[in-house]
Input
Amino acid sequence: MRTVRVRQPAVAGLFYPADPAELRGVIENAMASAEPGPVPKAIVAPHAGYVYSGPVAGSAYARVAPARGTIKRVVLLGPAHRAPVVAVAAPSAEAFATPLGLVRVDEERRDALVDQRLVAVRDDAHAGEHSLEVQLPLLQVALGDVAVLPLAVGRVDPGQVADVLEAAWGGEETLVVVSTDLSHYHDRAEATQIDRRTAAAVIAKRPDRLGPYDACGVVALQGLLVVAAALGLDVELLDLRTSADTAGDSHRVVGYGAFALA
Output
């Protein structure tokens, strides 16, 4: 019997609960307080520890939950924090493990993008990367069994990300998720000001107005906005808070935003 290549969790018990029942409960609680609305084609959600950014991420995943059964595939992009890659990096793994079970990797779409030279297979970009991993339990709770293509975005041009998204965009069966936090390590007042400016640029679909330090996943976000502008998608701000709002520290805060694109 062939052994499935599985990428094991790197931050379970650190960024989110390792106990399956506790993890599911935390996510369901985060989604329960969200405002209802139309199912989007794409969402932007933060990737910090759930105690900090979980309620903000929940507002985005609550929007896609009604499409459970319709959405079969997810294209997930986040920054490569831990490996110096000059590529949009896909894993060789066939599945990612979380405390809630295995998430299938969309091998068909991965291989097609590799053949088109739009992405490269780089397992080092995924080994310890949290920006993608923390989204997986949220996807499992919101959408159930879906195939996910996790892409770690390195030092590339936003146009390359846009090319990847255009090639993998699909129809109503495909959801696009961009994983990013916003400003990092300002005081509460400054972070709030920076993040409001960033949110305005996202809503206006103006990637040129986003600076390199406005979001850790800025390149993936810019690539998504390029496609959104080309397709005439509307961008809705779902939630905008900082770690000071969710966890209390007002001195070295991180900003979190959730957006829906439809």
Observations:
- The CA atoms of residues 238 and 259 lie 5 Å apart.
- The chain has a mean pLDDT of 97.
- The chain is about 35% helix and 25% strand.
- Residues 6-10+26-261 form a domain with the Protocatechuate 4,5-dioxygenase; Chain B fold (CATH 3.40.830.10).
